[in-house]
Amino acid sequence: MDKRYDIAIVGTGPGGLSAALNAKIRNKSFILFGNNNLSSKVQKAPKINNYLGFSSVSGKELGESYGNHIKEMGIEITEERINNIYAMGEYFTLMVNEKAYEATTVILATGVEFSKPLVGEIKYLGRGVGYCATCDAPLYKGKIVTIISSNAEGEEEANYVSELASKVYYIPLYKGEYNLNEGILIVNDKPIEVLGESKVNKLILKNSEIETDGIFILKDAIPPSQLVPGLKEDDGHIKVDRLMATNLNGCFAAGDCVGKPYQYIKAAGEGNIAALSAVKYLNK
């Protein structure tokens, strides 16, 4: 860990990008975590009619505008997945595999996870079910591991785990070409239920079942309470006030992760507010 940032922003949708722009304008040191495939959800929208200043713009065009604006402002995206964020009192520690970052404030703009947990997923969390394969892979040396991934980022984690585990099953919840190490078994089936006794021992799928020692579920968005221990939720969303402040001092949130309506312009506005609130907190 080289430095402590003023603000760490997690997410590169409209909320996170808007927060980054305002952090830059206010001359604060910040780091933005996400990916350069800017807001894939925005890109899929055929037409957007309610974004002020853009008449009948397509999602692709709006996404390109986001990218151009970020580039013009000299804002870089750190393409690393945050696995946990811990409130340390005066600052926050953000964990990325074996590495850690520190920031005085945090803005969460992680989107919302629409998929329901598997039957048994929450029950066996920490007892064979996890959300970060590279974090816990050493625990499964010589054992059987199953990885369920919502996107291609899971392939890298599966390849890492395959170097330690005796067998790796990979269940992709997306279409495409898979860049996986030899020996990883691809299972094109829908996961239904996690079974076990004191720990996980089986995954039930729609048309088959797998005996396994561990299951990693790599989602597009980690549930907020799992990402940030102690964070208060309200009906599956991060609980915030009108200044986008959460119950943790110095932690703010914006966008879909704080609740409906799931609108791009709402998320961008909340990102603006979250950044201004973080700046005010820092200036105190």
From TrEMBL:
GO terms assigned for molecular function: thioredoxin-disulfide reductase (NADPH) activity
SUPFAM superfamilies tied to this protein: FAD/NAD(P)-binding domain
EC identifiers of the protein: 1.8.1.9
Domain FAD/NAD(P)-binding: 5-271
Keyword Signal found: no
Uppermost EC category: oxidoreductase
Pfam families: Pyr_redox_2
Protein name, per record: Thioredoxin reductase
Biological source species: Clostridium vincentii
